[in-house]
Amino acid sequence: MNTNFSRLIGVFALAALVQSAHAELKWEQTSVDLRPGFNDKQAVAHFKYENVGNTPVHFKSVHASCGCTTAQTQNEQVGPGQKGEITATFNIGGRTGTQVKTVTVQTDDPERSTIVLTLKAVITPLLEFQPALVYWQNGEEPKPKIITAKANKDAAIKKLDVASSTPDFTAKVDAGSAPNEFRISVQPRDTTKAVYATLTIKPDSPANTGNTFAVAARVMPPAPTSGTAITPSTKATVSTVRHDLATPAPTAGSPRQ
Amino acid sequence: MKVSAVRQALLLIALALVPAIGEAIYFRDKVSWQSPDRSSEMVNLDQAKSWGTNAIWVDARPDNEFEQDHVPGAIPLNEDRWNELLPTLLAQWSLEKKIIVYCSSQSCNASREVARRLRDEAGLKDVFVLRGGWEEWLKNRR
Description:
heterodimer, A: mainly beta, Immunoglobulin-like, 2 domains, four-stranded antiparallel beta sheet, 2 helices, about 15% helix, disordered C terminus, B: alpha/beta, Oxidized Rhodanese, domain 1, five-stranded parallel beta sheet, 5 strands, about 50% helix
């Protein structure tokens, strides 16, 4: 009985010793929400930590979920009571909308060896276009097609300047149906030859630091010929196809207008 | 004794299943094992190859990976330089062509995101994501 009791005491003592000598990183937050401005190229999140244990913690690896994000630790080792942070830098590039990026941190803390830090960025660009491409079938009536430009409400954009890379298209800008919205009316001069143009759009806003945008307009090349010899039985089919191309459906060529 | 232990284990499993089922129903859209892929948007390598010249290959990986190697004839289009790169694709696209977007592997998300933007923002149809991505291409190239 005495032996058993001594063993029990020994186990408790060992457990208490193990418990008292521990490393523990306490994170201020493991998730950060950011709203970068429309001129920002990067969104930076700071994940602060403190070692509230009494032995050092070592970072084994810090790994971001995508190539667009880099993460850095201040120190490889965090001593007891020491504070620090992991900085995650997300390169916005041409991304829009809600972006969620994670940073996986591996430490030698046996209690919590893997920590996933989350950076959430809501990116509202200066301008959004719908659609980014308008096109006409070869031979289609050269009626104007509309690209809607939605401006960031914080940018106070008063007007848009649109320039076509070729003289084959003209573009006119009007106010849209909603505030901060513009209608870019694009029209080809001729739809009998295949042409492509980039329409460069420059917003006139005091907040804009020289950003320009591009959308595209195209007159498609003639439909490829199958190479099939025209026989009396196929002739009707071919003329039907030609008729269809000459009188496209009202929405054809300008999806999501 | 043995029967009692088995009975207790079964009881515990049954009790644990009740909240698990509830959670699975409540969070059915957020469960990590559910693939976000819509099968109609995915294409296998064999099928993609069978489209031949009727397809445009789009490389959604970062520039440095594209520069190292890529599917022959692929057009780079990543979100780092979306606005700069998109016009090149739009100039080559035509109605009858299918677009196959790929990124590094099955687990990467860049190809899905690029494909979504091509559909939603540019209004392109027949945009597919290559199942297995560049890894799958490499496996079959050897």
